[in-house]
Amino acid sequence: MSTTNQISVSGRAANQAVKPVGPRRVPAPRALPEALPFWEAAKEGRLVVKRCADCGETHYYPRDICPHCLSAHTEWIESKGVGTIYSYSAMGKEEARYTLAYVTLDEGVTMLTNLVDCDPATLAIGRRVQVVFKPSDGGYPVPMFTPA
Amino acid sequence: MSLNGQAYIVGAYEHPTRKADDLSVARLHADVAKGALEDAGLTKDDIDGYFCAGDAPGLGTTTMAEYLGLKLRHVDSTECGGSAPILHVAHAAEAIAAGRCNVALITLAGRPRAAGAALALKAPDADAPEVQFELPFGPATQNLYGMVAKRHMYEYGTTSEQLAWIKVAASQHAQHNPHAMLRNVVTVEEVVNSPMVADPLHRLDCCVMSDGGGALIVARPEIARQLKRPLVKVRGTGEAPKHAAGGKIDLTWSAAKWSGAAALAEAGVTPADIKYASLYDSFTITVLMQLEDLGFCKKGEGGRFVQDGGLISGVGKLPFNTDGGGLCNNHPANRGGVTKVIEAVRQLRGEAHPAVQVPNCDLALASGIGGALASRHTAATLILERA
User: Fold this and answer.
1) Could you say which of B126, B151, B197 has the minimum Cβ distance to residue A125?
2) For residue B243, what are the CA distances in angstroms to A60, A116, B90, B251, B321?
3) Can you give the pLDDT at residue B118?
4) Do residue A10 and residue B128 have CB atoms under 8 angstroms apart?
């Protein structure tokens, strides 16, 4: 995974990870031009995803070119901001503990996110969740989810 | 064109170090290259093809060709994370079959332990389009694999105890490997009682972090037959990436389903014919997924396959990672691909430790998952035969 991702390793030993002190800081997304409308909507508390005007498929993460048919006729649509937990994993200690998750939106796409404002021990796959925007470290707010 | 029989692995070498405080990354690549050449009975002037991935320093093939003083006519730096060397064997066979080289060197090496965890993590690529949608949420390798394990448990009833059996089997093998980082035999109870790292994965579900590396020499058949080492033929190869598919995410299967089917078809064999398997073991769940996706058992039955010693040499149905694997022996440069091929070669040559050597091991498989199962990864599968 070392070329194009935030994680340069496949299988870094867990006990070597540097534990942050205090709550985990949410890194600000480095918005690329084709995703700016997503982040501008996030500032207004709206979750948007992309749909292809030619093949009709919705996709995530949003991009100019439809990954299903390569059409450039993609358009932003408003998500209802509700979905179900596909999977999740809680990690970290005490204040810095956080829960990574995949949430499947009712619009049909699954997105990487965090589950927040809840006890991870009470979560379950299939649980209904709704979007809540949380501040990042000096950048756009980011879409996280909490039990509905 | 089938690659079956087009090339042989004639040299293999694993660096003995697990912490390289005083060795540079280039030096480690050179050490393993030298070791593999000595193993093959060849010299550096015999090498005319060179393969390395993102763990190599600088410009990879160019930088290392200079450091090693190589005169090359074919290079390939296909980067797909930890599975790269497995895929490089196939690419070397292709190049040999196409007449582009006669003797190919493949190296993998690194020193994340000596460099420290922070230095081992490269800065994310600002142009990678997914980073803005992932980095804010803290995807560390452990929790990405944790999500795969959690979904497998949900779909198929797989248990932490079943996953623990994979680590137990690796530790049973590692006790015989003097170079292994973790040589203590562990029990299922010790695995499931080790600290939770990323729910549901415990510390002992995770591979080691180690320095070092390994190298392979792949040669055309006429050259292989002139050398004194036992013949290890490349019989089947497969490679495939799997990704998030525009948000149609399904964590229940890996790209090993595609790469494995291609390799088995090219080799003309079935999983039941395989006597030994090197399976990428960044985490216990990684092994379970490959067992199912390569067809050693049905989807969802991996837990039952591995429990009660199913992977222990001399005990179970399918001896795996008899060097102790990444879970106990070595995961150099955070990449387990080259060590998977090296132990498969040892088994086919009859040079594994006697306590774990598979009797009459004439057909072996090596499988790698580079990247992260939960987001995007490339699987590579290799089927090797003692000729």
Assistant:
1) B151
2) 12, 26, 22, 10, 27
3) 58
4) no
